[in-house]
Specification:
Structural class: alpha/beta
Strand order of the largest sheet: 2-3-1-4-5-6
Strand content: 5-15%
Order of helices and strands: EHEHHEHHEHHEHE
Helix content: 40-55%
Mean pLDDT: 93
Length: about 210
Amino acid sequence: MQYNYIAIEGTMGAGKTTLSSMISKDFNGKLILEEFEPDKNPFLAKFYNESGKYAFQMEMTFLALRFQQLKDKLLNFDLFHDFIISDYYVAKSLIFSKETLQPDEYDLFSRFFNIVFANIPRPELLVYLHLDVPHLQANIHKRGREYEQNINDSYLEHLQQGYFDFIKQQTNMRILILNTNNIDFVANRSDYEKIIDVINKPYDIGVHRMIL
């Protein structure tokens, strides 16, 4: 692969875990998957039932999980893999928490975030998978996680806008936005190969947009 560390991002249901796993398998990448299941974060399911009551606890737990995982995976040299690929980038903590927390809670949370992740390496390429909300909802319902089944369109739309706002603010990263509404990289190998060809190009610092 062109880069030593790639992060795949997107709103829930965008396919980031599937794509990261496929690339890792095909190109001998060290795979980092976000630990998001309720047994890892006991506040997740509670948040979807009572968001106002459990949002801060949920976000702080995710913050701790992500820091521990990335510290262990990124800072330890690995002889057996050619590169690292992750299905998330740590900044999603800020993107999601800005949507879920009250302003004063978010201010406190962002202070912790900046302290905790100050020395964690950033990816050489951040890939954002964009799907329209109906496609996201179809994927969410298809995978059948019980605690996700009542997510409304408005929440997904706000998260997408949060990602776009974050991307606009980045001036020292390589960011690739892939519109994948018209392809199916799981069912069609040629679509997957299109994604690989696009990801595996040399990009300058900045935002690059592709419709596949």
